[in-house]
């Protein structure tokens, strides 16, 4: 069993809330996860000064996280910020092995210099495949910023990878348990075959969509079984987002649909 906390889209420099960050740190400290995954947009504009000011916050996060893996988002690479991400935060892609937890986490960079669209690219796809080829660890996780599959509420910009199909196929071929994403601040999940596609809200900013709350994901993965609790960054109240047990999936829709908000339709779960 591996215990992971996904935090994301801090957006330091724009609508960032110290109070939410403090709450998140406290939760991580109290729950002692095996690893923390940061899925991009740590800073808002990618500027050197912004990274410098954010660093003490990142140090606090590293202090409470025994293992941490961070990958850049489109905001981190604005204004050539990828240079400072790699200088001050870490490499744009990396693999975290937790052999005692039978777990491999592969973080890839879907962000590209100065554009908001995402792509993994052939060279990285090859690299990801090699990470899984060379590993016998059974809990398999990929972390990236952009979306493999479009989510509701994500607006009219292109939010999915230009090579999303390749990534989905790769996940199926290597029986990846979980693809973890950030980007549009929308907690959500889909399941295709062995893979759960998990999306997270903004953990430390007010950049929420509709009447969502800032949040982060607490994940327990255990030989194919999965439980994801969405944690409210203001109250630290948990609510179940997804549960997979022996191949049976329960997804708890965390919000009204956009159409329910806009029109008179009501949409039922069952
Ligand atoms: Fe973001």
Sequence of secondary-structure elements: EHEHEHEEEEHEHEEEEEEEH
Structure ligands:
fe (ii) ion
Please report the total strand number as a whole number: 15
> Any idea how many domains?
1
In the CATH hierarchy, what is the class?
Alpha Beta
Per CATH, the superfamily is: Metallo-dependent phosphatases
* Rounded mean pLDDT score: 96
What is the number of helical segments per DSSP (H or I, 4+ residues)? 6
Determine the N-to-C terminus distance. 31 Å
Identify the overall geometry.
Answer: globular
The poorly predicted ranges are none
Subunit organisation of the chains: single chain
Percent helix among the residues? 10-25%
Using only C-alpha atoms, the radius of gyration works out to: 17 Å
Describe this structure in words.
The protein is α/β, with parallel strands linked by helices. The protein has a single domain (2-262), classed as 4-Layer Sandwich (Purple Acid Phosphatase, chain A, domain 2). Helix content is 24%, strand content 28%. The protein has helices at residues 18-31, 48-64, 82-89, 122-133, 164-173, 258-262, and strands at 2-7, 35-38, 68-70, 94-98, 103-107, 111-112, 115-118, 139-143, 178-181, 188-192, 195-199, 215-222, 225-232, 238-245, 248-251. The strands form three sheets. Strands 3-2-1-12-13-14-15 form a seven-stranded mixed β-sheet, with no helix packed on it. It has a six-stranded mixed β-sheet with strand order 4-5-8-9-11-10, covered by helices on one side. The radius of gyration is 17 Å and the shape is globular. It binds fe (ii) ion.
